[in-house]
Design goal:
alpha/beta
Length: 207
Amino acid sequence: MQKKYGYVRVSTKQQNIDRQVSSLLEAGLDEKNIFVDKISGKDFKRPSYKRLIKKLKAGDALFIKSIDRLGRNYDEIIEQWNFLTKERDIDIVVLDFPLLDTRNDVNGITGKFLADMVLQVLSYVAQVEKDNILQRQAEGIKEAKKKGIRFGRPKKQIPSEFGAIYQMWEREQISKREAARRLNITHRTFTTWAVDHEQKNRTRAKN
C-alpha cells in the first residue's frame, strides 16, 4: 500500500507553516508523516528532508504544496526529482501544480514523463527570466552612468585641515595613525588621500 508523506519548508524560523500544513492535511496526509524544515532552500542538506528521504520506500508518494518548497534552484530540483522518481521509484505530487503529479496518466502519457517535461520547461523559463533580469540591470546601470549617476558609497570629502596635517606627517612630526585620528578617518583612507595629494603635486610641478 502506498504511504503518503508531506514536506514543508520555510526559509526562516519566524515564517508560518500553517498554510502548507493545512494543504497537506486536506490532501489526506497524516500529520505525523509531515516533515518540516525551517531553513533556506539553497540546497538539499536539510535535517528533516534527509530524514524524510530515509523514510521513503519505493511506491510511496511525496506531497508538497508548491515546487519552490522543494528547492530554489531548478537544476537541483530536477536532479533531486529524477533521483526520487527514477532511482527510488517515489511518486511526487505538487498540490499547486496538477501537471506535476507523477501518479496520473494524461492521454496515454505517463505522469512521470509529463512531469519531467513540465519541469524542463519551468527550468528554462526560470533561467531566461534570470538572464533577462541581469540584462535589464546591466542596461540600467549603463544608462545611469551615461547620465552621470555614480554607484557605490560616495567618496568622503577631504577636509580643509588635511593639508596642514599632511605636512606634519610628511615632516615626521606625527605618525600616519595620529594623522588619521586627527582627521577622524581610517589609516587606509589617510594613505589614499596622501597618495592622491602627492600625485597632484607632481602633476602641478610638471606643468
